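ARCHIVE CARD
CATEGORY: sequence design from structure
SOURCE FIELD: tokenized fold
FIELD CONTENT:
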């Protein structure tokens, strides 16, 4: 494997140090290697978050499972809408760019994914289901104390059961946490986001 994690002196992907690959716990090494195989590169967020060691590995297990296209109670595209809007509302440039691409692929329309990542409110052709999920994500991400029974009923009106609603809460909450890590670390967006 190539030099996966550069030394702090040779990188500016984070405002804190980026550990060497061989310093990492085994589980974290496995996750980073898996991401490299899957994507063809190692995302800067994984390199920057690696400073957390075993905590980062546990967080990654949780985060990556929430957006696994082959699992989950909600369809993958719904989970991407939630993650994308959460990242946009929190103002996380790294996550917004990352999820704009992923959402675009899930929707089959990269331009639409990018527009949702800029501001879902301006996307007239966004379907009702995704608009309701986007509103829910925006509210929960920034004003969790304001989420009320009407918001839950709007999700139920889409046909979501309680377990699916709770999964939506997991996605928004986990990505709100990831946004805070990324914003604090000032993780540099990957070059691949701009191709």
């Amino acid at each position: 494997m190539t030099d996966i994690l550069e030394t702090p002196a040779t990188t500016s992907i984070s405002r804190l140090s980026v550990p060497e690959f061989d310093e990492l716990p085994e589980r974290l090494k496995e996750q980073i290697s898996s991401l490299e195989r899957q994507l063809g590169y190692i995302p800067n967020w994984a390199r920057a978050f690696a400073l957390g060691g075993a905590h980062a590995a546990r967080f990654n297990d949780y985060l990556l499972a929430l957006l696994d296209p082959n699992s989950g109670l909600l369809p993958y595209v719904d989970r991407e809408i939630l993650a994308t809007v959460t990242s946009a509302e929190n103002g996380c440039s790294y996550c917004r760019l990352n999820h704009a691409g992923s959402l675009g692929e899930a929707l089959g329309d990269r331009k639409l994914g990018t527009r949702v990542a800029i501001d879902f409110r301006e996307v007239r052709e966004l379907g009702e289901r995704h608009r309701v999920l986007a509103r829910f994500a925006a509210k929960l991400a920034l004003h969790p104390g304001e989420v009320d029974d009407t918001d839950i009923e709007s999700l139920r009106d889409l046909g979501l059961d309680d377990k699916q609603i709770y999964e939506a809460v997991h996605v928004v909450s986990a990505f709100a946490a990831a946004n805070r890590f990324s914003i604090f670390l000032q993780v540099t967006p990957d070059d691949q986001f701009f191709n």
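CARD ANNOTATION: The mean pLDDT is 94. The longest helix spans residues 162-185.
SHELF: design records, drawer C
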